[in-house]
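Annex B. Sample input.
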Amino acid sequence: MPRLPGNEQLVSRSGKPLGSLREINTLDPEEKEQIYRLFLPPRLLSVLGVERESFTAVGGVRRVEFIAPAGLGFTRVVARRSAADRDPLFFLELSDTAYHQIELSFCIITDPDAPRFEVDVDAAGRDNWFASLGRNIPEELRAMNAGLFPNQVRRGMRLFVEFFPLFERFVDALGVDIITAEPLSYDNAIRYEKYGFDYLTGQTLMRRIDEEFQPGGKLYGRLDGSTPFRQPGMERTVRGRSWAIHDGILHEPWDGVQIYKSVGVCAGVTTFPGREPEPEVR
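Annex B, continued. Sample output.
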């Protein structure tokens, strides 16, 4: 049953209680899309210039795509302001887990009007899958100097802060009490802490990273200026640490960090308590 105040169990039009993405995906397209709109922030729809009921703009152009196959506990939402846009403004992937949880697999939000940095492709223009298949160092350097975090092709729109409370209420309305995720970078993990997540695995690593970035620590000593991503002082901010880790300063892969949030509960975990505020990204 739902935990959050004022929330009610999600039901289909026929009155059947819904408890998973798989169950939602059995509904007809129009009904399941109206259910999934519950977690779409009003500002997102305003930026897209679409009606909340139809997701279409003036002229009947549809700008929000839902991929929610019947028989699968998987949902993808892709929103573009224009079909010509290279990057989605909003990209979301969710899935059911075997333990009656909802996994927040991906949530990527980009400002389509912001400068683009080709950090997602290698020197030959091939997708590098979050730099796991090769890095584009010149573009990464440009992105870092522009104030972006690793793997960001454009700056964001500060929409996650509006999306996540809606998403948590949606999960709660399914009667699900756990949200899971797997941060793809150090800064992602720190950001999720802010939203009340705790660690299934990786908290020991996160605390060791904080310790080793303190004066006298191994990571602090490796900020030796040997690359643009390992400059002294980068230990003081999440962005600086994340770029150094992206550059391989750990001497081990960034892997095995898994997190979860109990619906309605803030875990209060902070693995970088002494961080300095990030400079404003313009």
